[in-house]
User: What shape does this take?
Amino acid sequence: MNRRAALSGALEVLAWWAALMALWLVLISAPATLELVVGAAAALVGALAAGGARRAVSGR
Amino acid sequence: MNGWTVAATAALAGGVGATVWGVATGPLRRRVVAQNLSTSLACPSLLLLAQGYDRPSYVDPALVLALLGPVGTLVFARLLAEDLEKDPPKAPWLTYAASGFGAVVVLVLCVVGGPDRAMGKLLVTGALLVGGNLIASRALAGGIAGSRHG
Assistant: This one.
């Protein structure tokens, strides 16, 4: 994997993470520090899975 | 009893009642359309009830229904693909009317509630509801069978 592919992959995971974090913030009842930490961690796992799934279906 | 609960009761009794009748009687193409429409009518009713009782947490069942209802329709579309291919359901106006009802309810509740995080949750629910139902009805009308052959 060259640097350009690594950069685009990282940007994709970042975009997924931002979208999932926004969804989390909308759906929780009251934003607290613990909620934000748990949400950020869960969104990171989801973002990595979403990026992998998209690469799998796009056949690259 | 207020206007919200009256509207929810009307949608539940008239709309969901009609879809239960549609699911229980008639040919297959009518039953699958009625099953798909039941989500489009029950989910806005739950949103109206949440507003009527002033319990924001009651929005959660509507969110879950908006997510799982179209998924359930996709399961039926997949299982019944061969039967539906011979006699495909065509009810575009009913589908658009039910989706429009859901969109109108979500927009009205957004306007009443004002801009806050609850409005974002309502918009997510509405997008899942309308988008999911349009995709599911497209799958019922031959989208899955078409993509499998093509």
